[in-house]
Amino acid sequence: TTASDTSGTVSLYLTDDLSDYQHVTTTLNAVQLRHSGSGTSCNLLSTPQPLDITELGVDKVLELADITSCEARSYNRLRLEFDKMVTLTDANNMDHLCAFTSYMDDQSRPNVLMCDASGSCRIDINGAVNVLAGQHEEVTLDFNLKEFEANLTASPCAVSMKVSPIHAQDKMLDGYRKSVGGLVSELDTTAKRFELTKGNSHFSVDYKAVTQPGIDTLLGRAAADGLKTKVACSSYDPATALCTAQGDAAVRVQLEGILSALDMAARTFTLTYRTGRTLTVDYSGASYDTALANGLTVEVLLTGHNGGAFLAQKVEIED
How far from 191 is each of 108, 168, 227, CA to CA, in Å? Predict the structure, then answer.
C-alpha cells in the first residue's frame, strides 16, 4: 500500500477581513484537523508562526502557511492553539498589551477560551474537512478582525477573537488570490523562475508575466541577503507547488532596518539592515508615516528597482 492510497495532502491558508488596527501581533502555535469520535488528528502547521493578523488578506490574498500529508478520512473539528497574549497597535500607533479571553462562534456568541499555565490557549471549531486518498484539500482560517472586541480598560486589556474555517474556493470566487512566501533561491533571471522555501514547504515561482520594474534586481537582493519574500499567485498548482505570478506588485520583499540620509525633496533614504548591509529606497510612490526621520527603525515593502534605488510600496515606523 502506498502513501497515496491512505493519505491526501492539505494546504492551510490564512486570511482576514481587515479592521482599523495597524497591527495585531501574536503567535499561532498549532492547527490540527481532528475527528472527535476516534481521536484521530493531523497537524497542519509544522512550526509555530508569528502573525500580524492585519497583514493577512491585504490585496485580497490567501496566505499559504503550510502543506501537510494527512490520513485520508473525514474530520469534523479544527483545533487552533495560539499565544494568550496579543499586542494591539491602534490608529494612533499606540501599543496595547492584551490577553485573548474569549472567542465568538459563527452566531457571534462568546465562548470561554481554554488556556494553560504556559500562556497558550486553544479553541475547537466545528467544520467538516474530507481528506481523500491521493487528492488535495484546502483549509482556510479567516481571522475576522472587524468582529474582534477589545476592552482597553481591563489590565491587561481583554480581547475576544473570531476566526472561522472556510473553503479556499469560496474566497477565490470573491476575487482572492493565493499567496506563497519564504526565502528566494535558485533564481534564474533568464527563465524568470525561482524557488521559495518556508519551513518544510518548497514552492516554484514563474514570474514571466510580472510587470514590476527592476524585478530581477529586487529578487537578486532578496536571494543574496535572505529577505522575506511574498508572491501573489494568479494561479497555483498544488500538485507541483508551482505559483504563476503576473501584473504589478505581485512580488513583495519585506525588510526592517535603520533609516538615514533622508531626502524629503527627492523622497529617498538609505536603509541599513543585517549588520551593515545598505540599500537606497525611493519612497515617492509609497504609503508612509509622515514622521519619517533619520535614526528611526522602519519596515519597508519593496516591489522593484528604478536603476538607482529600490522602489517602496510601504514604509512604516517600528517601535
Answer: 50, 30, 21
Closest CA to 269 of 261, 279, 277: 261
| Run of H or E including 216 | helix 215-225
Name residue, grid cell 476566526: 163
Query: What is the tens place of the pLDDT at every residue in 57-81?
Result: 666 778 888 888 899 999 988 888 9
The β-bridge partners of 228 are 254
Q: What would the grid cell of residue 132 be?
A: 481523500
CA distance between the termini of the chain: 54
Q: What is the pTM of this model?
A: 0.75
* C-alpha of 97 from chain center: 21
pLDDT tens profile 193-233: 999 998 777 889 999 999 999 999 999 999 999 999 999 89
The CA–CA distances, whole Å, from 6 to 31, 78, 86, 135 equal 21, 21, 39, 10
